[in-house]
Amino acid sequence: MNSAARSLIKRPPVFRIVGLQLIATALISLIAWRWSSVHAYSALAGGLICAVPNMYFAHRAFLYQGAQAARQIVQSIYKAEAVKLGLTAIFFGLAFKFIQPLEPASLFLAFLGVQSVHWFAPLIVGRRQRK
């Protein structure tokens, strides 16, 4: 496939989804601040524990494009997912070890809230692409 044809293939909007996750992290942290600063920074940590590994995944998983690179694409997605899961586990461990005091409920709720952006992102990103 020549470079002109290859340029017609659009990359998935994964970085937009990560951007939405970072926005959700900030909003959730601001909402949690209403209760206390401990809730706010615990929520911030939970959101970043979700968004940062996803940012790594987005960067690494889509290095290759095109049908000729199918094997490389699959390998990069599997490797990026494994590293993403490892980073998530490490970040949770670091949060519980080094963030004191920590509000676990805010940490986990923010993580889940930011993770749920994946469920709604296709609706949001799809609308923007159709316009």
Automatic annotation (TrEMBL):
It is found in: Cell membrane. InterPro entries: ATP_synth_I. Pfam families: ATP-synt_I (PF03899). Keywords: Cell membrane, Membrane, Transmembrane, Transmembrane helix. Its main location: membrane. It is a multi-pass membrane protein. It comes from the Bacteria. GO terms for cellular component: plasma membrane. This is F0F1-type ATP synthase, subunit I. The gene is atpI.
